[in-house]
Amino acid sequence: MHHFENRDGIMHAEGLPLTDIAAAVGTPFYCYSEATIRRHVQVFRRAFGDAHMLTAYSVKANSNLSVLTVLAQEGAGADVVSEGELRRARAVGIPGGKIVFSGVGKTRTEMAYALDENIHQFNVESEPELHQLNEVAVARGVVAPIAFRVNPDVSAGGHEKISTGKAEDKFGIPWDRAHALFAQAHGLPGIAVKAVDVHIGSQIAALDPFEKAFMKVADLVKSLRAEGIPIERVDLGGGLGIPYSDGDTIPPHPDAYAAMIRRIADPLDVQLIFEPGRMIVGNAGILVSRVIFNKPGTDRRFLIVDAAMNDLLRPALYDAYHDLRPVVSHDGESPIAYDVVGPICETGDRFARERMLPPLAADDLVAFMSAGAYGAVQSSEYNSRPLVPEVMVNGDQFSVIRARPDYQALLDRDQIAPWLS
Ligand code: LLP
């Protein structure tokens, strides 16, 4: 559910017509609905009832400080994968005690910073990482709370580039090494073993792979405890999918996901940690763009819009589908097939092939739906296109939460080597 709806023929973000925001901010721009973000995190939390849990929002999905502030106000923690993300989470007041640090390649500096911030846990992904973390902790006279991320060898995820739980993927420790590594970690002076962590992929639209992985994790918790290793938490990662189009398999509702998990996890009496990203912010954001040209090709019609693959990379990188809607309705007009493309000099700069849309002309506004997750965060300034602004809407007010840099700012980021001038 989201708050981007058509009212009197114009798509609104909550109470505001997108045409007004476009006039004020210019296009393209990302637009987020605060009410939608709040609703999603509340629905997720409520699904688990009275469970002892931490919702550690996966900052990589959308790391804008306003978005993080909304989530902090809702009591969420954060799943971070870099010092930069950790600093963002801390900057909006998310306490270290609600932050987990994931990722296969944490550096010594990042470990030290996270230890100083007293984070809830490090999700350790390899033996070398374990020893390095131990050294850094010992040198600072502290103990690092850890989970090992285990690789359950379960295949899941919306695309091969976002599946992470198979044996061939770089993530986690191999299943058959888990016992030995947990035992090793338990004996290290700078390490406190707290949890088992698993994350099998993203945009998962069925319960089955989660259930398979979580049952393996539950068995592992029991056998580790039997060996004297006190596991008190289980981190089940993120990955729950969202509907991107009407024809999609509808991903499980958080209620069904939670019921399945509680069935498996309640007997363990652990703190449950989750790292949802996409399901919190995905449908809470759109990318609004303007048609530049409607260009006839030899065998097709191109709709050239002012957003491009540098602004929303998902279609080019994962062949991802984003629903595309005209901001001003064209009731009663017969749809036409368009290839929707951006202005970048790459054939891959294509958002959609043969997409049926009402007849559109230069200056018409279109909205790429479900662009709140992995949209703005994956953008770049390729082709020297300034980063697109982000806007947040609350009822009938909006605010620019990341401004579009002007061209001078873009140029000023470079420096001409002194011997050249
Ligand atoms: N936890 C870990 C360790 C992760 O690697 C991820 C996502 C998440 C949590 C959050 O997963 P979510 O709930 O959002 O599915 N850029 C891709 C998605 C990459 C996901 C990477 N990891 C996309 O645009 O589809």
What can you see in these coordinates?
The protein is of the alpha/beta class. Helix content is 28%, strand content 25%. It has helices spanning 18-25, 34-47, 65-73, 83-91, 108-116, 127-140, 178-186, 208-226, 254-265, 278-281, 314-318, 407-412; strands spanning 4-7, 10-13, 16-17, 29-33, 53-58, 77-80, 99-101, 121-124, 144-151, 173-174, 191-197, 233-235, 271-274, 285-296, 301-305, 324-326, 336-341, 350-357, 365-368, 390-394, 397-402. The strands form three sheets. Strands 4, 14, 15, 16, 17, 18, 19, 20 and 21 form a nine-stranded mixed sheet that branches. An eight-stranded parallel beta barrel has the order 5-6-7-8-9-11-12-13, surrounded by five helices. β1 (4-7) and β2 (10-13) form a beta hairpin. The longest helix is centred in the middle third of the chain and has 19 residues, at 208-226. The mean pLDDT is 96. Ligand LLP is lined by residues 58, 61, 79, 102, 162, 199, 202-203, 237-240, 275-279, 314, 318, 373-374.
